[in-house]
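Lay summary. Proteins are chains of building blocks that fold into shapes, and those shapes determine what they do. In this project we predict the shape from the chain. Here is one chain we studied, written as its sequence of building blocks.
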Amino acid sequence: MPIKKSELYGSLWKSCDELRGGMDASQYKDYVLVLLFVKYVSDKYAGQRDPLIVVPKDGSFLDMVAQSGKADIGDQMNKIIGRLAEANHLKGVIDQADFNDDTKLGKGKEMVDRLSRLVAIFNSPDLDFGKNRAEGDDLLGDAYEYLMRHFATESGKSKGQFYTPAEVSRVIAKVVGVNKDTTQDQTIYDPTCGSGSLLLKAAYEAPRGMSIYGQEKDNTTAGLAKMNMFLHDQPGAEIFAANTLTSPHYKNKDGNLRTFDFVEANPPFSDKAWTNGMNPETDEFGRFEYGIPPTKNGDYAYLLHILRSMNSTGKGAVILPHGVLFRGNSEADIRRNLVRRGFIKGIIGLPVNLFYGTSIPACIIVLDKEHATARKGIFVIEASKGFVKDGNKNRLRHQDIRKIVDVFNQQIEVERYSRMVSLAEIEENDFNLNISRYIDSTEPEDLQDIEAHLKGGIPSLDVDALGRYWQICPTLKRALFAEDRPGYSRLAVEPAHINNVICANEEFARFTSYVHERFEQWRTKAAPRLMGLKQGDNLQSLIDILANEMLAAFSDIPLINKYDMYQHLMSFWTDIMQDDAYMIVGDGWVRASKLRQLEEKSKEAVDFVIGKNEYRADLLPPRFIVARYFPSEKKGIDTLEAEVAAVEQAIAEMKEEHGGEEGLLNEVIDQKGNITKGTVNSRLKAIKDDREADDERKTLKDYLDIIEREAKAKRRIKEARAKLDVKVATKYYHLTEEEVKALVIDDKWMAHLAESAQSELDRISLTLSFRVKELAQRYDIPLPQIMNEVAELEVKVTSHLQRMGFSWI
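And here is the predicted shape, written in a compact code that computers can read:
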């Protein structure tokens, strides 16, 4: 039966995290990713003729499985990896992690148990890379991305630089110019490639393939990058381990630097040791013809290396700290030269705290040699406010990535977000490229009106500032505001009724219907595409089409941000739909909808317990089956639950009324504050012949009656739920493909997305309501009235103090 990939990866990480032992994640990743590599090549190539990777005898993942529980498992795993490395010229690449290191993995039985459990994690049948999967189903790539993000998060501030967040990598790949038209003979190069994430995201954008080159000074990380190229079906990628600035590897026969079509990088920020091993003044590669960077700051050293590595039509992108945009001295000279020569195509300001090695703000500098001589300006984007908190880091959302890419590639000027800055304006600012000089992203100040504070009334300027709402709903303005005096209005409704007035407005109702009509137009196109899902389909192509159509559907609707709707779709795709769709294209609609029996001691959530067996419904949670096929049964249970709630309220009221020290129920309350049937019966027996206890007896009997009603209602709920569970579980095994499609597409997917569209409308009404209420409250009590009230209170306080014998002075 299918399993959600998100659950698989989560389980994988949690298990790995528990096994770290004496290492932090920056070290532990080397062990885990080597195992991932061995597992992948063993599943994919073992037993094949002329395989891309040779899996030798005694050099496969299954040979590791055979060592589980053995005293020398660590030594044997090293030997297995060594054989695999020897057979594929991967010595020094996949064999750097020592699986027999008792200082990191524990001694004796501790090491044996740890490694045996680790191998067992990767031996899961769900983590089988040899299966024929749906086109575009990158199980391995997704697992790698999941693990790398968590490794970087757990590695700490100084050790997470091996990974560039996937969201930033996607932005760079799309703005640097790699796309579906890129050809196999075009080249891309990353001089500080780390684990290869930037290169891999760029390669993903080129479905016809391209030639990949990278260099990384850390040997272990370079080995990781090489493995990752294999893991992501890029075996032809060249990765070299050496310092790019002091020992650039990629050179022509004449000794000059080799040049590439695309160059991208996320170099170490403000490298203070960049000149170690070199003299920039005599650089044989001519990289510093536009100026020599400061000895203690290598940001421009990497940028100039990138520029030199671009061919005459080359495109580039580099992530650097904001300081490169405005720092003075030699950096100012370099910046001036680059701007005058037209090499800088654009600058994209990013949010703070995106990267794992630092929390400082960074930017993407986009370079372009092809159109340098004709360049008249630099396109600048201020995207620092578009992000979401994700643990202790910030992360770009789907809508942030898409907006940056759309705006940059189409050169769209958006107020407080983007603009084309002329070279003349930059020169006027002495070639300072600080984004805030050219784009003011701050929200307009909310000005206070002195006359309104003195005389009351809402300034017409503030009311008119809400013009985007009045354009859609002209009569709504008159419904909310009445003229007070020239230039000022007053609220025409009670503050508590503002939102009701907005929602009841006919024009707002028509606008609401129009938005839903647009959603239905999108749905009309999307539903047949989803209905047509079949085994083997490429889901990435599908979501790209759905997302583009969503953007188009909401592109010209006032008050609706199309990127917000895009985010709703993409978030739902990431959280729910993607897992669902991969199960469908992997197993078919009907099989994917079946219940999955859980293994013993499973940590997964349970949907059904039938007999001694636990089941989970991954594609279709029971609530959708119940809502469509068993509404009357659900209504009956709801009625019983309402009855229980009413009885529980009555019990609470009786305890409140009679549970005090002198109360009639005081004697039956136990130490935990509970009243049980047993304590009540014992008390009744004790006061059986007490003629003065009639009131207490009555109260106790009433309490017994009410808790008996509660118990009966709960038993009826339990019985009704058990019967419903059987009906629902049976229905799972009789669902037709058409029924499954209706449940998944209409009831699960489209219903959720329709609610998302409604949530945007709710946001619009609530935002307007809040602003109107804010303005009304701001000027509700004029200053003279406040002063009069203060004066009156002062007189009262003074009089009171005098009566008490105190003087105010």
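What the prediction tells us: The longest strand covers residues 310-321.
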